[in-house]
Recover the amino acids of this structure.
């Protein structure tokens, strides 16, 4: 009897392998004590850059990996690149962040950055998943490191609260998703996306309640992760509480990966049942646009504001899935890329101001920025305008794509909903800009640090330790972050004026999805 | 030529960011004047006999979305382009002479606004038009918000935000409308295109025309502003910095009216015909309401603001008479009104320097020792009230003539608006210039620097009064083309459901 080893496509798996190896290396090197920041960060950069390079090398391929449980195509690679890019951005943001480097304690860059890489690995796998099992495993690999990262600032009550809240809500979402998967498996008898599609279509079980319940539960589970209203309740709290670099990473990359699998799952596996779910998803999108935009109006915390705006933006992007077309998929990829650029720039400014002023993430932290620090004011202004979808930025082209997709799919009313939502959103985006340019800077009056909560190890002995409030302004400038921010802003404007490179990128991703649908 | 004209202001604005502070106003003023020269060259080069586009540029921009980069001028837009360049040159010059604070950002924004406005007039692609139309708002948000000043208890930032949100409501609906137009008009399986010329050949069915027409009308009517949609106007006028207000009032309002001529009439002829009466009523209401308000306000800025509402009512009336003479008169009147309102606002700035107030009841007697100022103001006032002999008279005559032949009732009521114009314009002049000066107001002659801006504008008014045919002749063929129902084969295609 001969035994033939399974054929392993190392080339196709190379991004995943690179990330896994880098993850282990970063974790081990993190054991070095002094001066680990440069060493660990260099290693992380090399890992992520290698993974990104391998993704670019594989561009244009379309093949099944690991016995068909993963699908390597342009869609997966495009989303992987967006996620890896945000991870690259998040690493310099985390330097000097108390979660990774608290004065008076051993630095923990190794742990922090290996968690970021682990989560990125989950995202890359999730973008490729085309089997319920790999889907769920990747989903958890993405989520678990993020639960830890959210609570990484162990001496701050808000961070712990965010970690715990995200863990509980996220687990609930995962459980819901898993339950839905079970129903779908039960109805179709397969875990492979394409076979599920055949099972649903061929078996004539369109209106089988099993399928419907499965779809509903899966949609709800995914909606938790991409913060679609009414499953968004955790978003503002967790965004506010988590260390800001983590928030930035989470807001952009999680959304990209989860949307990718959403797209693949619904448009490959559940494609025959499109009529069953597109109305419901359209309603979710509309609710999300309304809730996100109205919720953001009254926020004074920039992170909460961006959280609610993220809910609204998720609603816009869901429209692309409702459109259920190749064009919709391109629109989604384009918007995700644009969203990554503008959101990362905005969060980076928040991070810098948290370190420079005593206001934390309060909107007063950016007051008078236009006169004082134009190099920060412009990126923040441009990313706000881009998020609002004003012309001259990538955000406008993205909105254009989305509206076009919705109108072409006969969901014109959703296009109108996007327009109205955008209009409402201007009220709060412009408020930030008004603070930046039209108000003089206010002298800070820092809140006195309160005693540590017992849960965070607070006791009369430890009270008064420096760095309790998380952020202590130290007056040092963050040159690297400013460099990255300016780069992202320049890209936002560039792709708003010359969108062709990004539209080609998005288009080949859309074509890849259409090819796998058949 | 057209490309340089469009992008030069923005390029100068960006260059302003890099230069030392001293050089910035000089450079900006030079940029404004060179743009004006280019626009004048464009107008001189314009062939008056043709109806179609001239100086056309046609390149693809986002091929995946069918968006092209198409520019061109025709008889409708050519003088609006000149007007834009002229008023901006005035505003930039005025600002350069008065030295605003933070001048780099100021001039960047002012010149960005010029590029956006020129873009809206030059664009021949529906989406490009929408893009420039939206882009105009961004610099004005900064200009109003950062350089505005609190006035009569109206705070700057809320007033500015209100203006932007109001005007963007329309603009965003217009974006959806534009996309819907292109998708619905595209032949099945055919290429998507936003080109105005292509869209014109494939008109929409009547049902879709109706709702899309209103999406566009919302944008244009808010911008003008028309009656009931003018809620943002008083507050925004109160806080705006004056040179910015001059271009805002002089040009931006016209973009709305221009949009009707460029987009609504050619692309949605059925809907236009169907809703003609409704728009005419809105226009009439604007005339009467604007005139009445202009007559009762005591703030000089608001008198001007509400008079603009009334004047734009006239322009809308002319366009929606759906007759070539009415629409041609409307084109002339757009230029006229821009030419009149901008010097008026600059004069308000001069008056404010003298009297320290913008309240009519506390002004007076300013003409005493200032004959030149008084003369300039008088010319502008007489043009505003459409004295026979002024080109405003010709414009209003054409408009009323067009409406009269189409809908006699509206013409009769609108004539009342002409009379009311005389009331509020003369009241504005008398209250400020005549009577005995109150305490603390000194009558001084106009300075050299303001005169440098105001006098050329007044000279333009006089020149146009002598030869309004300059615009009418060039406008007519293009207007006729816009009003013309498209050729028969297309009509059959609209009948197919």
């Amino acid at each position: 009897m001969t035994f033939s080893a399974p054929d392993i496509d190392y080339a196709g798996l190379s991004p995943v392998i690179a990330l896994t190896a880098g993850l282990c290396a970063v974790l081990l090197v993190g054991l070095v004590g002094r001066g680990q920041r440069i060493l660990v960060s260099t290693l992380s950069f090399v890992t992520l850059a290698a993974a990104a390079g391998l993704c670019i090398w594989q561009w244009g391929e379309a093949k099944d990996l690991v016995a068909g449980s993963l699908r390597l195509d342009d869609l997966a690679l495009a989303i992987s690149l967006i996620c890896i890019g945000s991870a690259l951005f998040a690493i310099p943001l985390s330097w000097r962040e108390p979660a990774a480097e608290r004065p008076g304690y051993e630095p923990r860059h190794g742990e922090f950055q290996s968690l970021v890489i682990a989560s990125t690995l989950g995202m890359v796998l999730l973008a490729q998943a085309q089997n319920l099992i790999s889907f769920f495993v990747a989903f958890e690999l993405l989520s678990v490191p993020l639960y830890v990262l959210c609570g990484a600032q162990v001496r701050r009550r808000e961070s712990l609260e965010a970690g715990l809240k995200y863990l509980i809500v996220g687990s609930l979402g995962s459980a819901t998703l898993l339950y839905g998967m079970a129903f779908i498996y039960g109805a179709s008898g397969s875990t492979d996306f394409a076979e599920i599609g055949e099972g649903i279509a061929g078996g004539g079980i369109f209106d089988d309640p099993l399928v419907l319940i499965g779809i509903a539960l899966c949609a709800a589970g995914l909606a938790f992760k991409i913060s679609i209203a009414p499953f968004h309740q955790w978003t503002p709290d967790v965004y506010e509480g988590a260390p800001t670099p983590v928030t930035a990473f989470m807001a952009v990359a999680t959304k990209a990966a989860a949307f990718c699998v959403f797209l693949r799952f619904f448009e490959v596996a559940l494609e025959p049942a499109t009529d069953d779910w597109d109305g419901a998803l359209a309603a979710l999108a509309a609710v999300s646009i309304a809730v996100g935009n109205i919720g953001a109006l009254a926020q004074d915390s920039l992170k909460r504001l961006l959280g609610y705006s993220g809910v609204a933006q998720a609603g816009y992007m869901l429209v692309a899935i409702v459109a259920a077309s190749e064009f919709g998929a391109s629109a989604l990829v384009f918007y995700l890329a644009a969203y990554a650029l503008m959101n990362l720039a905005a969060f980076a400014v928040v991070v810098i101001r948290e370190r420079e002023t005593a206001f934390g993430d309060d909107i007063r932290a950016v007051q008078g920025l236009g006169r004082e620090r134009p190099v920060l004011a412009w990126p923040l202004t441009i990313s706000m305008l881009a998020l609002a979808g004003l012309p001259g930025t990538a955000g406008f082209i993205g909105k254009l794509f989305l509206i076009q997709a919705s109108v072409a799919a006969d969901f014109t009313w959703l296009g109108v909903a996007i327009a109205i939502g955008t209009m409402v959103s201007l009220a709060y985006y412009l408020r930030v800009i008004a603070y930046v340019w039209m108000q003089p800077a206010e002298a800070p009056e820092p809140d006195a640090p309160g005693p540590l909560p017992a849960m965070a190890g607070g006791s009369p002995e430890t009270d008064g330790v420096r760095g309790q409030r998380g952020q202590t302004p130290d007056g040092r400038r963050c040159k690297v972050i400013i460099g990255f921010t300016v780069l992202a802003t320049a890209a936002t404007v560039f792709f708003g004026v010359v969108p062709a490179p990004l539209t080609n990128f998005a288009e080949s991703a859309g074509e890849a999805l259409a090819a796998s649908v058949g | 030529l057209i490309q340089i004209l469009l992008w030069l202001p923005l390029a100068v604005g960006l260059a302003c960011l890099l230069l030392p502070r001293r050089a910035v106003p000089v450079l900006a003023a030079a940029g404004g004047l060179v743009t004006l020269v280019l626009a004048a060259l464009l107008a001189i080069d314009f062939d008056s006999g043709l109806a179609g586009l001239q100086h056309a540029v046609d390149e693809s921009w986002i091929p995946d979305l069918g968006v092209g980069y198409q520019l061109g001028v025709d008889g409708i837009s050519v003088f609006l382009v000149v007007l834009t360049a002229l008023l901006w040159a005035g505003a930039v010059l005025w600002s350069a002479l008065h030295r605003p604070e933070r001048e780099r950002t100021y001039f960047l924004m002012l010149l960005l606004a010029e590029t956006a406005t020129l873009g809206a007039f030059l664009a021949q692609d529906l989406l490009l038009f929408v893009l420039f139309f939206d882009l105009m708002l961004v610099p004005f948000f900064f200009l109003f918000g950062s350089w505005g000043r609190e006035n009569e208890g109206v705070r700057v930032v809320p007033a500015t935000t209100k203006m932007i949100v109001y005007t963007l409501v329309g603009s965003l609906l217009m974006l959806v409308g534009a996309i819907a137009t292109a998708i619905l008009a595209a032949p099945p399986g055919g290429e998507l295109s936003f080109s105005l010329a292509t869209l014109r050949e494939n008109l929409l069915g009547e049902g879709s025309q109706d709702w899309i027409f209103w999406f566009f009308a919302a944008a244009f009517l808010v911008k003008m502003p028309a009656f009931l949609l003018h809620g943002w106007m008083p507050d925004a006028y109160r806080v705006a910095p004056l040179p910015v207000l001059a271009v805002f009032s002089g040009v931006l309002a016209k973009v709305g009216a221009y949009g009707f001529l460029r987009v609504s009439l050619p692309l949605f002829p059925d809907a236009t015909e169907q809703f003609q009466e409704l728009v005419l009523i809105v226009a009439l209401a604007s005339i009467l309401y604007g005139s009445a308000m202009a007559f009762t306000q005591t703030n000089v800025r608001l008198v001007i603001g509400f008079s603009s509402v009334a004047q734009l009512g006239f322009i809308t009336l002319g366009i929606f008479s759906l007759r070539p003479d009415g629409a041609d008169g409307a084109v002339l009147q757009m230029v006229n009104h821009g030419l009149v309102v901008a010097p008026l606002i600059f004069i308000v700035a001069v008056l404010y320097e003298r009297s320290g107030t913008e309240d009519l009841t506390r002004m007076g007697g300013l003409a005493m020792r200032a004959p030149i100022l008084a003369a300039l103001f008088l010319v502008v006032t007489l043009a505003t009230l459409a004295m026979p002999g002024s080109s405003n008279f010709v414009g209003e005559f054409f408009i009323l003539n067009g409406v009269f032949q189409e809908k006699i009732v509206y013409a009769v009521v609108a004539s009342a608006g002409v009379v009311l114009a005389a009331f509020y314009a003369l009241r504005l002049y008398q209250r400020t210039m005549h009577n005995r000066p109150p305490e603390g107001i000194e009558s001084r002659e106009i300075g050299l620097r303001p005169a440098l801006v105001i006098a050329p504008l007044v000279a333009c008014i006089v020149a146009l009064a002598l030869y309004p045919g300059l615009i009418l002749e060039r406008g007519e063929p293009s207007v006729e083309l816009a009003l013309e129902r498209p050729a028969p084969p297309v009509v059959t295609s609209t009948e197919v459901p």
